[in-house]
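This part of the workshop introduces the protein records we will be handling. Getting from the letters to the tokens is the skill we practise here. An example says more than a description, so a record of this kind follows:
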Amino acid sequence: MNPQEDICIDNEELYAYIVEKTGFKEEQVAKILECEMEYLESLGLLEDKEPEEPEDHDVFVDTDELERYISERLNETKETIAAVLDAENSFLLERGVLGVKFETEC
């Protein structure tokens, strides 16, 4: 898969996958993932436009900091958050999306 290619992720499919893997309610999953997107946006990692100069290195997100950010805003346990994020990563890995620019709700 070309790393410059945009991928579309169906949120309903993602939520259903995570609900099945974790047993959590869809509303809870959606709130955690929305908060994750807010965190990534606050780091400047989610932008609608292409950067002027392409990054020539991998971008890493401190998962402990991400879990803390979500936990403080949603009053969820770090274990719950970690389970949702792990299931999200599994979904993305199974579809070959990790490491590729993606969009939701095309």
Residues 101-106 have pLDDT under 50 and may be disordered. Residues 7-48+58-104 form one domain. The longest strand covers residues 7-9.
